[in-house]
Amino acid sequence: MTSLSKSVQKKSKTKSPNQTQDDVVYCHIFDAILEQRLPPGTKLNEEALSEIFSVSRTIIRRALLRLSLEQVVVIRPNRGAIVAAPTIEEAKQIFKAREVMELAITELAVENATQEQIKQIRKLVTAELNAFEKGDFGSGIRLSGEFHLKLAEMANNAPLLNFQRSLVSQTSLLIAQYEVGNNANCSLDEHTILLDAIEAGDKEKALSLMAEHLNHIRSKLSLDGETASNDLHVVFSNVIKSNALNKA
């Protein structure tokens, strides 16, 4: 067992007992992008990532390829991979696609959501609130994205869930690239009210609330924005610390 496997063993068991090293690396990088710890344009050096995660470069390449298929990483021939940096025009296209996707998901979620799913997503909203109250904006942003992914799960449509995963992570890139300060989080009241409408089976209200919610996210974008660290060792310092403890 590699040091990477040891460092994430407990976390892996809570997610999937069959999680591979590819999955673990993919999840770490995906979360770092979603939490905006990896800013757009960051070079994803295979050698550095291989050292950080204590895995082969082949595994790193497979994880990066998977992320490129979700359009959050760009693999450049002979120049390596970087975190995608959408242009303004691409940002408009992403938001248009997100709008169409979210409305379709919301409509299906109203029709298919179970009480157990409603209960679980309410816990997620509480965790999101707690993260922002503690000043943990990275976790709060990730949980906000997970809220929208959970809605896609409620829709009970696998293709929509796959598309949504890519759009949520791309939206996180846009926020990291174009929004000022740490105001990227969705309004928690909006999440709660939207969930209330879905639980009540009020499709018209839910669709209206989702459209308003997306407009709120879009309205906060600016050409200015804070820059996160592009040092891979800083971004994945938690993994490095875990590896060091396992070796001690």
From TrEMBL:
SMART domains linked: FCD, HTH_GNTR
Q: Which SUPFAM superfamilies match?
A: GntR ligand-binding domain-like, Winged helix' DNA-binding domain
Q: Which domain of life is it from?
A: Bacteria
Q: Which residues form the HTH gntR-type domain?
A: 19-86
Sorted alphabetically, the keyword list is:
DNA-binding, Transcription, Transcription regulation
Give the transmembrane region(s): none
Q: Name one GO molecular function term.
A: DNA binding
UniProt name for this protein: Transcriptional regulator, GntR family
Q: Which organism is it from?
A: Photobacterium profundum (strain SS9)
Name of the gene: RA0906
